[in-house]
Amino acid sequence: MAKITKEKFKTKDSVFDNFTLKNIISLMRKGFFLEDSLSPIKIGKEAVVFAAETKEGKDICIKIYRLETANFNQMYRYIKSDPRFIGLNHKMRKIIFAWVQREYRNLLLMRKEGVPVPEPIKFQQNILLMEMIGKPAPMVKDSPPKDVKKFFEEVLKNMKIMYNSGLVHGDLSKYNILNDNEKPVLIDFSHSTPPNNPIYKELLERDCKNIADDFKIMSKEEILDYILN
Ligand SMILES: Nc1ncnc2c1ncn2[C@@H]1O[C@H](COP(=O)(O)OP(=O)(O)OP(=O)(O)O)[C@@H](O)[C@H]1O
Ligand SMILES: [Mg+2]
Q: Which residues neighbour ligand 2 (ion) by CB within 5 Å?
């Protein structure tokens, strides 16, 4: 096997700091994906998302949280009151690692409940590996469904399943729903939290408002009423 060097990645993708580079290389050496198979899907402020290929030829998705994120204070506000993550204090890296772990756990739980989400594969420090949806599938924002009503009903059904399983998505909108051949797949579960979090209700109401605004089929109140009853 060709030697994997940090320098190789440095020239290829300058978005990575040293710590992250080591982490990527470690995952690659463990055999989670092939060297040279990384290609960027989305370079965001908080996270960068890459496509990669496994040795079996399967596409996977690599979500890498930046260690110097501009939105750190906001992330802290949203995770500090989650009872599962008490005692984080202001340690930046610790919080980012917990954020990644939370997304992984939330995805696992959602898979168990039958909500259409990418299958999580592995988390390691600031990196999350998961199933690739589509090639990749576009966001609803960029690729609205043909049958909006049918698609919306599917989203609504899954919001109720989430609620009944004791989790609110927390950042649900047309940006975090993929249109996978006219079927919704929900992504970006790092905000999702259980009802014993004091901000749970605020997040639930916000999700309902976003979905009402994005689909324009039911009002926020009607959506909330459907979910709660
Ligand atoms: N499993 C996946 N399969 C296909 N595409 C994906 C997958 N995960 C993420 N993407 C693509 O990458 C984009 C960014 O992913 P995501 O929404 O998880 O991160 P983000 O919004 O940048 O992060 P965050 O809000 O957690 O900081 C998505 O809009 C989607 O286009
Ligand atoms: Mg997102």
A: 176, 188
